[in-house]
Amino acid sequence: MPEPLAAARRNRSSSTMSKSKLSAIEINPSSRANASIIWLHGLGANGHDFEPVVPYLGLPAALAVRFLFPHAPERPVTVNQGYVMRAWYDIAEISINRKIDHAGIRASVEQIHQLIDYEIANGIAAGRIILAGFSQGGVIALEAGLGFRVRIAGIIGLSTYLADKNAIPSGDLPIFLGHGWSDPIVPFILGQEARDVLVERGYAVEWHQYAMEHSVSMEEIRDIGRWI
């Protein structure tokens, strides 16, 4: 394991947020945090999934970023024969025109809003908070970031899509979107659609496409680090 990751883990803790039902992995900088990145995992994973990317983002220590990797609630997932797993919402079918679990999405968005409030209560300005998410987590990051009561710093959406493209408000928030050309889980066309809708609504979208499937590459991680 690279030394930067080992160093990061010395400042790691697992905590339950006092204002949220979500528990999360927390990685703190060596100095007092003045910025925060809340990173949401995909279906069936947990908060540990993206923890290893931290040192590879190449962020300068002076940014003093705290990372939070929350664990999604456990729930039965219809498309996976009803097995209980960590999921931000239910998925009824694998289809571009899939039915959307809007109630589940709203519940998870509310939990992420509580997590943002937790960070604000701990001295992090809303304008220094980024929401990031992969796949299902990206759906929630976009919904929660665009719908928070005040402007946050930005949103990172990876291999993801918009749950309801007709409900996107206008705005100018910086957004990083990355997607694999050969994604068999969230088709590339859904990522393009998200990009086009967000650009149309006025958002500052930085779009990246990669030669990969439903995954995250080192090239993408480096691009995210530069964007941050």
Primary descriptors:
two-stranded antiparallel sheet; eight-stranded mixed sheet; alpha/beta; 24% strand; disordered N terminus; 228 residues; single chain; 28% helix
Radius of gyration over alpha carbons? Answer: 16 Å
Fraction of residues in β-strands: 15-25%
Q: What composes the largest sheet?
A: 8 strands, mixed
Q: What count of helical segments does DSSP give?
A: 5
For the biggest β-sheet, the strand order reads 1-2-4-3-7-8-9-10
Using DSSP, what is the number of strands? 10
Terminal CA distance: 24 Å
Would you tell me the overall average pLDDT?
90
Tell the overall outline: globular
Portion in helices: 25-40%
Low-confidence stretches: 1-11, 16-20
**Run of helices and strands:** HEEEEEEHEHEEHEH
Query: What class do helices, strands and sheet pairing give?
Result: alpha/beta
Write the layout of secondary structure elements.
Blueprint: H1 3-10, E1 12-16, E2 23-27, E3 35-40, E4 65-70, E5 74-77, E6 83-86, H2 102-121, E7 129-134, H3 136-147, E8 154-158, E9 174-180, H4 188-200, E10 204-210, H5 218-227
Parallel strand pairs: 3-4, 3-7, 7-8, 8-9, 9-10
Antiparallel strand pairs: 1-2, 2-4, 5-6
Task: Describe what this molecule looks like in 3D.
This protein has five helices and ten strands. The chain has helices spanning 3-10, 102-121, 136-147, 188-200, 218-227, and strands at 12-16, 23-27, 35-40, 65-70, 74-77, 83-86, 129-134, 154-158, 174-180, 204-210. An eight-stranded mixed sheet has the order 1-2-4-3-7-8-9-10, with helices on both faces. Strands 5-6 form a two-stranded antiparallel sheet. A hairpin with a 5-residue loop joins strand 5 (74-77) and strand 6. Helix 2 packs across helix 3. It starts with a helix and ends with a helix.
